Structure formats: C-alpha cells, structure tokens
Amino acid sequence: MKGYIIKSLLQVIPVLLLVSLIVFILVRVTGDPVALMLPETATAEDRAVLTEALGLDQPLYKQYITFLGSALQGDFGTSFRYGESALPLVLERLPASFELAVAAMIFAIIMAIPLGILSAVKRNTFTDLLISGISVIGKAMPNFWMGIMLILFFSVMLGALPVSGRGGIEHLLLPAFTLGIGIGAQMTRLVRSSMLEILNQDYILTAKSKGLRPFVIIMKHAFRNGLIPVVTIVGLQFTSLIGGTLITETVFAWPGLGQLLVTAVNTHDMAIVQASVFVIALIVIIGNLLTDISYRLLDPRIRYS
Question: pTM of the full predicted structure?
C-alpha cells in the first residue's frame, strides 16, 4: 500500500498542473481583467499602467509561468472586490462548507443505511416499493426547489427555523436536509443493490442454516461485506459536496465556499475563482485517495498494482 500511496501522490502533480492551465485559460477567455478592475471612466494611461503591473503585456507562456510560480507559493492574486489576498479568503470560508457537507452526509447515511437494508430484506414487498419510490423522488427533486419549499413551510408558514445564515444547529437543519436528501436517496438504492447481491451468497445461506438470528446475519455477515460500494459513494460524494454546495449555499445565504465562488463568478473576481478551483481540486484528489485506501482497510484481499 505504501508504494500505491506514493504513486498516487506523485500523480497529483500533473493533475494540478492541468487544473492550473485550465484555470489560466478560462480567466483570460472570460474577459479583459483590466477592463473588469477599472471603472468606465479610466483613461488609456490608467489601463496601460495596470496592464503592465499585472504582467498582461507579456507573452502568454511567460504569464503562465509567473502565474504558476505564484500559485505554488499560495498567491492566486488579490481580490478586487475584497481588496485582500484570494487564498486566505477561500480558506476562511472552507470550514462553513465542511460543516454543511458533514451535516448533509450524516443525514444521508442515517437515512440511507437502514432504509436500504430494510428494502433489501423486504424485497418485492410493499415496503420495498415504497422505499424505492421515495428514493426516486428524492433523487429527482432539484436542490433549489427543495430548499425553497422547506423555507416556505418551516420558516415562513411555521416560523420554526431561520431562513438563512450560519449560527446554531437550527440554522444547519434546512440546508443540510436540502443537500443530503439527493445523496441519501442515491445511497439508499446503492445499499439495497449491494445487500441484495450479498444476501444471495452461499455463506449467507450457510449462516441461515446454522440458525443464526436474522439481525446477526444481516449486520455482521452481510452489511460489512457490502460496505465497499457505500464507502465509494460516501467518499466521492463528500468531496463533491465541498464544491457542489453552490446552489444550496446561495438559497440559504450560507457563508461558505460555494456562495463565495458564485459571487466571484458574478462579479468576475478571477483571483477568488482561481483559488477556489485549486482548493476544490485538491480536496477532491485527497478525498479520492482516502477512499481508495479505505477499500484496503475494509477488505484486506484487495491489492493495489
């Protein structure tokens, strides 16, 4: 495993280089940074001075080398909206996004595992059809619609929960439910499929013939061996949640990385966009690596080559 981890870490380098190149190109095709940063009343001399100060008068390959060198030092530029270095602003918003992502994933796991197991055990019964139907509906509902409906019911009609902002657990409930319902629905179907496959294995039939209690068979023998697909979706979905909370954070005015990125895109604050994309890409890469390592911990028979 040690060799696999080292190899995977080395593969991070070309991936981040590719991400840096894509970000560098996108920033320059979305508009002239000088025109975006200066007011309309700026003179041609002002534009020329800022262009030279930003190094935009240099050839593109030199601009990219300068950009890459600064990025390696954690310098993605200064946000013209906030007047501060971009990376600290992004890292400052990251804990709020982590908090929302963890809460959403906990909700999804609490919902999906018991419902998925129950659906598999009660295969082709009314209970199975009901859980499967709810899962399909939960997966199909858009996050923005779900968030608005929850605000209308719990905040506007009942006045039980706050509409927006970050604070106590009451502020977390609605956005976490909104974000977690789709993942929970998908995870429920995955747990069901995994359990159905395991429950038909010979060793499960042997356990039943020995007279073991159904609970012991399901939880000790079946569920543990069906965990790998669940770990896969938990690992992949959690990393995607960090960068995928754009709509939910915007609907609930949650002060996380997603809301910061949406604001940066709308205001063409490219320094924030660059830093956000890099941080999100790094989180996804690390998350995928940890997911791969967890396979080996769950099933020692897995070997890496």
Answer: 0.78
CA torsion sign for 38, 39, 43, 44 is positive
Q: How far is Cα 233 from Cα 159, in angstroms, rounded to an integer?
A: 35
Tell me the C-alpha distance between 133 and 127, whole Å: 10
Alpha-carbon gap, residue 152 to 242, rounded angstroms: 26
pLDDT score for 4: 66
**Residue 41 CB coordination number (10 Å):** 6
In sequence order, what DSSP letters do the residues of 203-233 get, joined into one string?
HHHHHHHTT--HHHIIIIIIIGGGHHHHHHH
CA atoms within 13 A on the CB side of 140: 6
134-168 pLDDT, tens digit per residue, is: 888 888 888 888 889 999 999 888 888 888 888 88
Could you tell me the two tokens for 294?
Answer: 């967890």
Other beta carbons less than 10 A from residue 168's beta carbon: 8
φ/ψ of 8, rounded to 5, equals: -65, -40
Distance separating alpha carbons of residues 36 and 95, to the nearest angstrom: 30
Neighbouring C-alpha atoms within 13 Å toward the C-beta of 220:
9
Q: Exposure string (b/e) for 45-82, b if CB count within 10 Å is 16 or more?
A: eeeeebbeeeeeeeeeeebbeebeeebeeeebbbbbbb
Return the half-sphere exposure (C-beta side, CA atoms, 13 A cut-off) of residue 99.
18
